[in-house]
Specification:
Strand content: 25-35%
Number of strands: 6
CATH topology of the largest domain: Immunoglobulin-like
Radius of gyration: 25 Å
Oligomer: single chain
Strand order of the largest sheet: 1-2-5
């Protein structure tokens, strides 16, 4: 398909050089404006995503010993959050291998207004070795993504 556009463009340049240059210039300007808009929207989305804080702390005394992972989600963005997805990660102190067996994906559909936060409690996900003690691990969030309400 692109070769058809190239043939037409070459024909226009040869047949109508002045008008073709203006037309090609306008087309290039339009494409640049479109790409700039997409870039700005992508940067805004990444900025809003970075303003959502998801933290995890091992706290067996916080809710119950069966649900010792305390997850706090805070919306520091200017938009309303409709849903947040995240994954847990657990590491031995000083090591970089995630000790969770598989993916510990979690989600909440708690709606969070700008500046609002919520705290949730979860069980410890299955670890790669049964002898690992969850209290001795460094817990973190390896992935997070928020879904924002469209205006």
């Amino acid at each position: 398909m692109i070769w058809i556009a190239a043939v037409i463009a070459i024909f226009l340049v040869l047949a109508f050089p002045k008008q073709a240059v203006i037309l090609i210039g306008l087309a290039v300007a339009l494409v640049l404006i479109l790409l700039s808009g997409l870039y700005i929207m992508d940067r805004f989305e990444k900025r809003q995503q970075s303003l959502i804080e998801v933290t995890v702390v091992f706290d067996p005394a916080g809710y119950s010993s069966q649900y010792p992972l305390r997850v706090t989600i805070k919306n520091n963005s200017s938009k309303l959050v409709e849903k947040v997805d995240w994954q847990f990660a657990a590491f031995s102190p000083g090591h970089s291998t995630n000790l969770i067996d598989g993916y510990a994906s979690m989600s909440t559909d708690k709606i969070l207004a700008s500046g609002e936060s919520t705290t949730l409690f979860y069980r410890v996900p299955k670890l790669k070795a049964e002898e690992l003690k969850a209290a001795m691990l460094d817990w973190s969030i390896s992935y997070k993504r928020a879904v924002f309400r469209e205006n």
